[in-house]
Amino acid sequence: MLPDPLKTLKGQLIVSVQADDGSPLRGTPHIVALSRAALLGGAGGLRLRSASDIAAVRAVTGVPIIGLTKQSHLNTEIYITATPDEVRGVAAAGADLVAFDGTDLPRPFSVAELVRAAHDAGVLAMADISTLAEALSAYKAGADIVGTTMSGYTPHSPQLPAPDFELMAQLREAGLPFIAEGRLNTPDLAALAQQLGAWAVVVGSAITRPDHVTRWFADALRAEKEQH
Ligand SMILES: CC(=O)N[C@H](C=O)[C@@H](O)[C@H](O)[C@H](O)COP(=O)(O)O
């Protein structure tokens, strides 16, 4: 059995509440409102970007929060929580788990260094990976859980329009616990991830990025028009 707060998250829907730069929903009051709406709908956990969003949402809920930062760094493609300082900032803001890039991309700090920073700050370490090999290394480096978050976002992982169910099956086969994340855009897809053994399931865009969801519908209508 994994440690608390992962125990609390078992079988739960975790809603990722993040707004992209340039989105009209980027702003802590919007993130708090979206988080409260997700909680009303039955979310058992939240995944949030930035210390200010985490602190503001922490003030209104006790559910487990997975926190991260997103920012670019010189000489690396890595943008999810890339440094021990960022790990500490997310932990201090009130997150229970810190999510960080756990891929093989060139990186300023090793996965082990980020894990250590999380544990020293008293929070759990979630490695966002894109392959089975990265998951194995992350567990070797001390990560408490891995997420399939980065599949499709590294050059060496399959570039799928759908969730990476193959990776989930591999993780299950290898006996590695995982949180399913990435393009789980319908309730059926989320349920399938759970069936494939996901410890918990993260859904973001389909719930909290109305601009993306609108684009899915608009594109479908345009494609239909072009065919007739
Ligand atoms: C790759 C990357 O940067 N993913 C980010 C990680 O925090 C978020 O932008 C995603 O929304 C999240 O992973 C949930 O995925 P989806 O929005 O597809 O349900």
Automatic annotation (TrEMBL):
Keywords: Carbohydrate metabolism, Isomerase
Cited Gene3D superfamilies: Aldolase class I (3.20.20.70)
InterPro entries for the chain: Aldolase_TIM (IPR013785), NanE (IPR007260), RibuloseP-bd_barrel (IPR011060)
Protein origin, superkingdom: Bacteria
Reactions mediated catalytically: an N-acyl-D-glucosamine 6-phosphate = an N-acyl-D-mannosamine 6-phosphate
Any one Pfam family match given in the protein's UniProt record, by short name: NanE
GO biological process, one term: carbohydrate metabolic process
A molecular-function term among this protein's GO annotations: N-acylglucosamine-6-phosphate 2-epimerase activity
Name of the top EC class for this enzyme: isomerase
Record-level GO cellular component terms: cytosol
Protein's pathway: Amino-sugar metabolism; N-acetylneuraminate degradation; D-fructose 6-phosphate from N-acetylneuraminate: step 3/5
EC number: 5.1.3.9
Family: Belongs to the NanE family.
Primary role: Converts N-acetylmannosamine-6-phosphate (ManNAc-6-P) to N-acetylglucosamine-6-phosphate (GlcNAc-6-P).
Name of the protein described by the UniProt record: Putative N-acetylmannosamine-6-phosphate 2-epimerase
Lineage: Bacteria, Thermotogati, Deinococcota, Deinococci, Deinococcales
Gene: nanE
